[in-house]
Amino acid sequence: MRIVFTSLFAFIISGFVGGLVAQELAVATGAEEEYVIVFMFSVLVTFVVTFVFFVAQLMNDPVAAVAMAGKWTLIVFVVLLALLVVLILYSDSSAAVVRKDMPMVAGLGLPGLVTIIVHWLFVRWRVKRGIAEIKAG
Predict the structure, then answer these.
(1) CB burial class (10 A; 0-12, 13-18, 19+) of residue 29?
(2) Comparing C-alpha atoms, which of 79, 90, 83 is closest to residue 113?
(3) pLDDT in the model for residue 1
(4) Residue 95's Cα: distance from chain center in Å?
(5) Does this model's pTM top 0.70?
(6) Backbone phi, psi, residue 91, to 5°
(7) Rounded to whole angstroms, how far apart are CA atoms 42 and 19?
(8) Pseudo-torsion of CA 71, 74, 110, 83, nearest 10°?
(9) Contacts by residues 68-71 (CB-CB < 8 Å, ≥ 24 positions apart)
(10) What whole-number distance in Å separates Cα of residue 53 and Cα of residue 22?
(11) Which residues, other chains included, contact 117 with Cβ-Cβ below 8 Å and sequence gap of 6+?
(12) What does the DSSP assignment read for 94-111?
């Protein structure tokens, strides 16, 4: 039951923080309707990260599994983000189109990174706390 509550609270907290970052980027960049994609992507990242960390908590050594899940989730996300940047930079678009797309790429990247990091920190804290309670009890 502890795993379910940890995942639920991590989902809420990381989704909220990622949404705040997306909102601030939308305001800072003067975003328009297409920025809805950023908010949808932020929710998708939150769901995927919640599932990954939920499964990691079910492993025999949850502390190591959560650490590995956090590391590999960040690596995969950064690689996918780098591929998106390369795709935009090396497409047949003009410089004006690339400049227009970069706030969208930042909007896809920063909230996702913040979501992953906050989720990882919260789950890691809860897992270590749970292990300490088991050893003390």
Answers:
(1) middle
(2) 79
(3) 85
(4) 29
(5) yes
(6) -80, 175
(7) 7
(8) 150
(9) 69/120, 70/116, 70/120, 70/123, 70/124
(10) 22
(11) 74
(12) -HHHHHHHHHHHHHHHHH
Residues 6+ apart with CB under 8 A from 119: 10, 11, 13, 14, 46, 49, 50, 53
Token digits of residue 93:
């678009």
The pLDDT tens digits for 30-40 are 888 878 889 99
Kindly state the tokens that stand for 10.
């991590």
Q: Where are the beta strands (DSSP E) in 61-125?
A: none
**What is the dihedral sign for C-alpha 54, 55, 60, 62?**
negative
* Secondary structure letter of residue 90 according to DSSP: T
Token pair in block for residue 135: 């050893």
